[in-house]
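[step 3/7] fold_predict: job queued, chain A
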Amino acid sequence: MNPLTAIVGRNARLVFWRNFLAWQKYAVSSVAINIIDPFIYFLAIGLGLGAYVTLTGHGTLMQFIAPGMLGMAVMNAGTFDSCWGCFERLNFNGVYESMVTAPVDPLEIAAGEYLWQAFRAVLYGTLFLAAVAAFGLIHSWWVLACPLVFALGGMAFAVPGFYVAMIVAIQEHLFFYFSFVVTPMLMVGGVFFPLDRMPAWVAAIGWCTPLYHAVAACRQLLIGAPTVQTGIDIAWLVAFTLAMMYVPRRVLRRKLGN
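[step 4/7] structure written:
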């Protein structure tokens, strides 16, 4: 079995369904937490700072950061549960231990988690997209393709997050991933300001992050028809996700293999 066959298998769907049933117990709080955070940033920066700042060649600040906040919502959805939730399911409540004795292959558990995080990204991204629409910031019917970007982005963030959750020794070590990877990625991912006036090395680092491509694809779909660059952004997300799926295979076998 490889990661690609695992993700289309029945057991991956059952792992997804188990997470969905468990999530129903705290769905309201989960939705609120994942929407309020980017919405506060959106209002504070878009309305507050946007009243004083204009972006030459990029429209208003609110218009610019709206797709950035969509990318942030997708990143939060795909990262937080793949790190904290998966660590707890591995180490605290015995969920994965029960699954491998079912038996479910470790790669199928990982695949189910990727599908689950993609669903969360689509759900939270779409809800935030409705908020963006209420501010009149959508100018193209191509915005209906945004959920596809949300799903791809959710998986692109979930795969490395799940790997980190599998290798850290204690839960507090997850903070290193957020402090040294997630937060810097948010700063250079084209969320709050364009990168065309940044030093070349900053722009290069930003381009290499999944957040940059998720934001860039959403930005184009909100304002007009997709371009060749939009296709490149989507292809980058797909290639990154597929490549990263093969990275944690050994540690998954060691941690979850029976």
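[step 5/7] annotate
The beta strands are 54-55, 59-60.
DSSP finds twelve helices and two strands in the chain.
exit 0
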